[in-house]
Design brief:
The protein has twelve helices and seven strands. It has 376 residues and is mainly α. Among the domains are: 14-136, no CATH class; 228-277, no CATH class; 295-375. A three-stranded mixed β-sheet has the order 3-5-4, with no helix packed on it. β4 and β5 form a beta hairpin. The chain starts with 12 loop residues before the first helix and ends with a helix.
Length: 376
């Protein structure tokens, strides 16, 4: 019977102890190379012609990475592209991916070198403490003063399974999390409120079709949802519980959320896709040069395209994006395209823009986007 190459019980201890550090060093060097490649592919947006709407979707679809793994590597790759010293620090084992992700919000051209040096060979806990110390002055500056006059509050809500969070003041977003930290109870119906994640999202940074999901399975068919809400949202939830108290006596946030989402989706589908239970017979209109897309065309295109981007790469991969979908003329409107069922398709924003750039040129489209931003 052949011995698996991963079965190492036959190797002497000295060989194992000699080989392990060598393999770890090789792994770190390979990781730095992977990050450099991710940074370049991301910068050039080479994932777009491969029929992916984001770098995360590309890493997950083409390389089989998990969403968390892809997110972390892309954030580090972007930081390392801006501060190249990170590549060497990771290759040499002086910094880890987690360390760079924690440090990224504080990096600046002036402080990057000192901050990276201070974090070398530090544990996650030590780096988190360093970040907290450096961030503390900024946190004190942005916390608003409590108002002198108490603001009116909504009357008490119906009894719900989970107690509402209390606030330290009337300032929105300032919450006191009770100790010990709240955990998810398998049979709980209510939405849990937990502390903020240690790595806040960065302004203007778009990585994925959806942000890292706070959803997690509890027990079939239950799903735990962990979110942070501000005071206004809390008051809106309480008011909705009060309005629905006859139909939902328990005031369960899960049931209220379900009803709210159903109503929101109906409204959004009506506006975006002209969805309706009673479609009208389309009226015959005189031919005119307009970008208006009739309601019956929107409904038919949505059903035909399956609410998914229709862009297909040269290798035959269809974009899987279902976010930021737009109606796109198969034959460009500027060149005589018509708003018919056969003449309209669904495209995500990324591939709609990519197709336009392929047709009209990148410089032309950049000028058009600048004009649109100026007009808005």
């Amino acid at each position: 019977m052949s011995i698996s190459k991963y079965s190492l019980g036959h190797l002497p201890a000295e060989v194992l102890l000699r080989e392990l550090p060598r393999l770890v060093a090789r792994d770190r060097a390979a990781l730095a190379d992977i990050l450099a490649h991710i940074a370049e592919v991301d910068s050039r947006k080479l994932y777009v012609p491969a029929a992916y709407s984001s770098m995360v979707a590309y890493c997950m679809g083409e390389m089989g990475m998990s969403e968390d793994s892809a997110l972390k590597r892309i954030r580090v790759a972007r930081a390392a592209r801006e501060f190249p010293a990170i590549f060497e620090a990771i290759a040499e084992g002086r910094l880890s991916l987690t360390a760079v992700v924690l440090l990224k919000p504080l990096l600046s051209q002036k402080a990057a070198g000192e901050l990276l040096a201070a974090a070398e060979h530090k544990s996650k806990t030590e780096i988190a403490r360093l970040v907290a110390c450096l961030s503390q002055p900024e946190l004190h500056e942005v916390v608003p003063e409590p108002p002198t006059t108490p603001e009116p509050t909504t009357p008490a809500a119906q009894v719900v399974p989970e107690p509402p969070m209390t606030t330290a003041s009337n300032a929105p977003g300032i919450q006191v999390v009770p100790e010990p930290p709240m955990t998810t109870v398998p049979n709980a119906q209510a939405t849990q409120v937990v502390p903020e994640p240690p790595i806040p999202p960065e302004p203007g940074e778009t990585l994925v079709l959806t942000t890292p999901s706070p959803l997690g399975p509890v027990a079939p068919p239950r799903i735990a949802l962990r979110i942070n809400i501000d005071q206004e949202t809390q008051e809106l939830l309480r008011y909705a519980q009060e309005l629905l108290s006859h139909r939902i006596p328990s005031g369960s946030p899960a049931v209220v959320l379900n009803r709210a989402l159903r109503s929101l989706i109906r409204d959004l589908e009506r506006k975006k896709f002209a969805a309706t239970d009673r479609p009208r017979t389309p009226r015959q209109r005189a031919a005119s040069r307009t970008r208006h897309i009739p309601a019956h065309v929107k409904r038919a295109v949505r059903e035909r395209d399956g609410f998914q981007c229709t862009f297909v790469s040269a290798q035959g991969h269809r974009c899987e994006s279902r976010t930021r979908l737009e109606f796109d003329h198969v034959h460009e409107f500027a060149r005589g395209g018509e708003a018919t069922v056969d003449g309209i398709r669904l495209r995500c924003r990324v591939h709609n823009q990519y197709t336009a750039e392929q047709t009209f040129g990148t410089e032309f489209m950049n000028r058009k986007r600048e004009q649109a931003r100026g007009a808005s």
